């Protein structure tokens, strides 16, 4: 398999450590992992405050701390990189420079506000050109069971974000068990129109499987990769969050683009990044 590049945001928090743990578990022996630690000058306030800020010393301390962390891990695949500047921008810039296959960042917040109000994960999700894995939960397991949420809208030309998400999962984790799922949901106020609920729901399951099969066909996944089509019940957000209780990784495509547009619209990917029980990969 061709060597792949993982770019990981690393800091002193548990979330930063979890992102690096995930990358090490997901990467193969011939892959490379670039561990990026961003540092910045302190903001000093007060007209009576004058100080000589030892920039070289700060850079040296940041680089030394990162090197010591990597030395303790003792993994030859990891390259430490200390960068001055905003953490989110630094990670995005390094990912672009290294032509990264995936970026991994940690996030432990439990609401959309934590993703919107200036977090590093939020910046990377909305500005990285490659897929982004948001590492959530108490651990970062090797992705042996991957669940991909799919939809067949705008598939007339054979391409949409679900196709790209499934291709990503199949190419990055070819040895994993991959479940491609489509969610259907019947609101309680509408359920009364079903004359034979059991039979009608079976039809909805069949329709969902047909949606998944269309996406699988469009993705043209290598036959050696095991992909199972499966229906799930609930809104896409709820169904995938429930799937994340058992899955090692959830993968979704996103149509959102950078800036406020992606933030204000809200999306399944943003809900998952805020509430998933396992790491989440967001693919553009």
UniProtKB/TrEMBL annotation:
<protein>
    <submittedName>
        <fullName>Nucleotide-binding universal stress UspA family protein</fullName>
    </submittedName>
</protein>
<feature type="domain" description="UspA">
    <location>
        <begin position="4"/>
        <end position="136"/>
    </location>
</feature>
<dbReference type="Pfam" id="PF00582">
    <property type="entry name" value="Usp"/>
</dbReference>
<dbReference type="InterPro" id="IPR006016">
    <property type="entry name" value="UspA"/>
</dbReference>
<dbReference type="InterPro" id="IPR006015">
    <property type="entry name" value="Universal_stress_UspA"/>
</dbReference>
<feature type="domain" description="UspA">
    <location>
        <begin position="145"/>
        <end position="284"/>
    </location>
</feature>
<dbReference type="InterPro" id="IPR014729">
    <property type="entry name" value="Rossmann-like_a/b/a_fold"/>
</dbReference>
<comment type="similarity">
    <text>Belongs to the universal stress protein A family.</text>
</comment>
């Amino acid at each position: 398999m061709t060597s792949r590049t993982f770019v990981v945001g690393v800091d002193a928090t548990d979330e930063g450590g979890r992102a690096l743990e995930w990358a090490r578990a997901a990467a193969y022996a011939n892959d490379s992992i670039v561990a990026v630690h961003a540092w910045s000058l302190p903001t000093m306030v007060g007209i009576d405050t004058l100080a000589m800020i030892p920039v070289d010393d700060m850079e040296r301390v940041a680089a030394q701390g990162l090197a010591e962390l990597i030395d303790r891990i003792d993994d030859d695949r990891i390259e430490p990189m200390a960068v001055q500047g905003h953490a989110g921008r630094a990670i995005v810039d390094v990912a672009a420079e290294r032509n990264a296959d995936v970026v991994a960042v940690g996030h432990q917040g439990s609401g959309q506000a934590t993703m919107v109000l200036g977090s590093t994960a939020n910046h990377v999700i909305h500005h990285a050109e490659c897929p982004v894995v948001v590492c959530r939960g108490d651990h970062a397991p090797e992705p042996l069971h991957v669940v991909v949420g799919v939809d067949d809208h705008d598939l007339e030309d054979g391409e949409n974000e679900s196709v790209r998400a499934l291709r990503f999962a199949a190419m990055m984790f070819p040895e994993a068990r991959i479940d491609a799922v489509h969610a259907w949901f019947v609101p309680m106020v509408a359920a009364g129109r079903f004359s034979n609920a059991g039979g009608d729901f079976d039809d909805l399951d069949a329709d969902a499987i047909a949606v998944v099969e269309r996406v699988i066909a469009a993705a043209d996944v290598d036959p050696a990769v095991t992909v199972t089509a499966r229906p799930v019940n609930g809104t896409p957000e709820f169904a995938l969050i429930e799937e994340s209780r058992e899955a090692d990784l959830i993968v979704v495509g996103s149509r959102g683009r950078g800036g406020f547009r992606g933030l204000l619209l809200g999306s399944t990917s943003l809900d998952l990044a805020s509430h998933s029980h396992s790491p989440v990969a967001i693919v553009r």
